[in-house]
Amino acid sequence: MPLPPLLAGQVCAVTGGLTGIGRAIALSFLSHGAKVAVNYLASHNKDEQRLLDSLREDAVAAIKSRDQSSIISAEDLPLLMVPGDISQPETATDFVSQIVSAFGRLDTFVSNAGICKFEEFLAIKPDSFQRHLQTNLSGAFYTVQAAAQQMVSQSPQGGSIIGISSISALVGGAEQCHYTPTKAGVHSLMQSTAAALGKYNIRCNSLLPGTIRTQLNEEDLKDGSEKKAYMEKRIPLGLGKPEDMAGPAVWLAQPELSNYVSGAQILVDGGAYVNFQ
Ligand code: RM4
């Protein structure tokens, strides 16, 4: 028996929502009755159009999964998809402006967009380091700030901001020396914005995914690889999937369920962090 819609009437936004964790969270928010805006990095290739079309189709299925009586169609979805490179500050203000134009307000913002290129530390070039820094941390800062400015300005004032950090905020990754500092930074940003924005009734929290199979680690965890076999053995609940991040995000978005949770770090890792076998 599925849960009833828990986010009816909310306006939610997700960066990097075309694939992976962001997509799963966006679809879950839609299934829970929210209006959803998705930011994505335009690639202008055929894969992008396929992903955009399939997101619409999956959105219809997600909404019907919790409301069988829904007669929603792909043409009239409460779904806004906005291209933009979040490493550019103006993308953040443009995204929030389009959300407000379309839906009138912003209640929950998920800073999810991020990159991770597995690389030997000694060989990482400055432009790769900068890309990780500008996308994962600067992009989080710019978009969280734009979202918070909107949440402060609206009535009723307030909202929920969710930073998708990582287990890598707590542990190292030998081939992720450019990535892990940015994920630690995202968590620290949530701690500080929780302190700064509580007076505006805005809650800021971090979700820390463990090893979730997404496009980020497709190559790193390819079938038959030693790494995949090791991670499957090491993680008590096995490898995660993007949908495993949706429930914790809905919980943090739903004020009746998490209204006194702010500055928290929620590890969603299948038990990996505590298992040192
Ligand atoms: C996470 C963790 C996972 C990896 C992803 C890309 O922080 O290190 O193992 O697959 O990043």
From TrEMBL:
Any one GO MF annotation of this record: quinone binding
Pfam families, alphabetically? adh_short_C2 (PF13561)
**Family to which this protein belongs:** Belongs to the short-chain dehydrogenases/reductases (SDR) family.
Protein's UniProt keywords contain Oxidoreductase: yes
Is Oxidoreductase there in the keyword field?
A: yes
Signal peptide limits: none
Which species is listed as the source? Cyphellophora attinorum
GO biological process annotations for this chain's record?
A: fatty acid biosynthetic process; rhamnose catabolic process
Instruction: Give the transmembrane ranges.
Output: none
Q: Which UniProt keywords are present, listed alphabetically?
A: NADP, Oxidoreductase, Rhamnose metabolism
Protein name (Swiss-Prot/TrEMBL) = L-rhamnose-1-dehydrogenase
Give coiled-coil spans as residue ranges: none
Q: Which SUPFAM superfamilies match?
A: NAD(P)-binding Rossmann-fold domains
